[in-house]
Amino acid sequence: MSQSNLNQKNILILMSGSIAGYKVCSLISQLVQKNFNVKVAMSASAQKFVGFATLEGLTGHPVHTDNFEPGQAMEHIYLARWADLILVAPATANTINKMSQGVGDDLLTTIFLAHDFKKPFLLAPAMNTKMYLHPTTQKSITELKNMGVEILEAASGVLACGEVGYGRLLEPHLIYDEVITRLKEYSPGMDLTPAPSPQKLMKVLITSGGTQEPIDDVRVITNKSTGKTASIIADQFSNAGFDVTYLCAETAVRPVLNATIFTFVTYKDLDQKLNSLLPNGYDFIIHTAAVSDYSVAQPASGKIDSSKDTIEIKLIKNPKLINKIKKLSPKSQLVGFKLTSQATSSTIEAKINDLFENAQCDYVVQNDWIQVHSSQHVFNLYSKKDIQKNLSITDLSFALITLSLNKESL
Ligand SMILES: Cc1cc2nc3c(=O)[nH]c(=O)nc-3n(C[C@H](O)[C@H](O)[C@H](O)COP(=O)(O)O)c2cc1C
After folding, report:
1. Residues of CATH 3.40.50.1950 domain(s) within the chain?
2. Ligand 1: which atom is nearest the Cα of residue 98?
3. Residues forming CATH 3.40.50.10300 domain(s) in the chain
4. How many angstroms separate the CA atoms of 199 and 244, rounded?
5. Fold of 202-405
6. 218 alpha-carbon distance from chain centroid
């Protein structure tokens, strides 16, 4: 059978409410790029983690959520019939336990009850280790296996809750491989080339930390940016399978996970590094670096004599580096960061509009200096149409991953 026949296969993904939901977006993107027909049904909890717009944008189909939606009351039967393969991913402890007991109180569990076991039904658990090893969950997994459900289990790893152990969602490219293997088994003779590794899917450039402007050979003017926010965002993007380039100040916090790292010191240095990196075709650029607005007009050589009571240093305004990013990389989506200092809402609005208009930012993340050192360090994420307010750094990272997946790879 030809490749095009295989690619007409219908895959139904049932998403339940886990923090690993964003990773399934990357899997869906791989399947759709290979021309599979993908539809998604979500539990009520899953809708809190991933937005409809992302899934509709990726699959080209409306998302199914409700057993009792007018005109769609038989959807659980139609979807179960439509699918050549059903995959629950991420599968929560709750949904696993309900499915094993034959509970049918939402669309996901009702689809499971309507499933014809002549076709493959796969399930990829994602949860905290204690939930995963709980006797109820383990018993349910065994019962589901006995029914013919294929459980896609990951080896142990770092979990979103910070623990290390079992329960981590299998990496999206490995789920992809399992899906293809099952489709081949159930439809022998089909030919499918493997998906590209997810690392090749999307390239992201993240700038981080603060520039240093020399006053003389030993002194600098700098700022308090640590690069911590950028390092966390970089790790979340790496974890989601992106190819991450991290352009950071030499002193900035580095990501823990794999990223290609370049460093800068001064404004001029950062400018040059951007000039050489931006033609690389990044899909998504997150510019968090705190770039000096001024540089010293003429840094002194050696060390300025410290015996004088006063000295004058002339500073010259630097052009905004963010304003050149879209000019050098017009196809990239650009995220600008704006740190305000107890600004009024009209001042914040003006600064954000400036980034949309002059830097051609697609998204702007705003936070206020007063909150940076508090335990409630939150971010507001602006698009031209919407605002997502009071996001934690984890929520912000997931929101950015979701937005980046809404655009095709360059
Ligand atoms: C931030 C957050 C993250 C969660 N992550 C998981 C998870 O990874 N796995 C899991 O089994 N439950 C997780 N839960 C709990 C489920 O969302 C909860 O049990 C819910 O009722 C599951 O409903 P569903 O199975 O219908 O989607 C999480 C809850 C919250 C608030």
Report:
1. 3-195
2. 25
3. 202-405
4. 9
5. Rossmann fold (3.40.50)
6. 40
pLDDT surpasses 80 at 370? no
**pLDDT tens column, 258-300:** 889 999 999 999 999 999 999 989 999 999 999 999 999 999 9
- pLDDT per residue as tens digits for the range 34-65: 788 999 999 999 999 888 877 887 888 899 99
Ligand 1 pocket, CB under 6 A:
16-20, 43, 45-46, 92-95, 126-127, 131
Q: Which residue lies with its CA nearest to atom 11 of ligand 1? A: 92
| CA 129 remoteness from chain centre | 23
- What is the whole-number distance in angstroms between the Cα of residue 134 and the centre of ligand 1? 15
Distance of CA 299 to the CA centre of its chain: 42
Kindly give the distance from the C-alpha atom of residue 20 to the centroid of ligand 1, in angstroms, as a whole number.
10
Q: How does pLDDT run across 302-335, given as a tens digit for each residue?
A: 999 999 899 999 999 999 999 999 999 999 999 9
Evaluate whether 252 touches 231 at the Cβ level (below 8 Å).
yes
User: Which CATH superfamily groups domain 3-195?
Assistant: Flavin prenyltransferase-like (3.40.50.1950)
The residue whose two tokens read 């307010």 is 389
161 is catalytic: yes
pLDDT digits (tens, 9 = 90+) for 137-188: 999 999 999 999 999 987 655 555 555 568 889 988 889 989 999 988 877 6
SS3 category, 314: coil
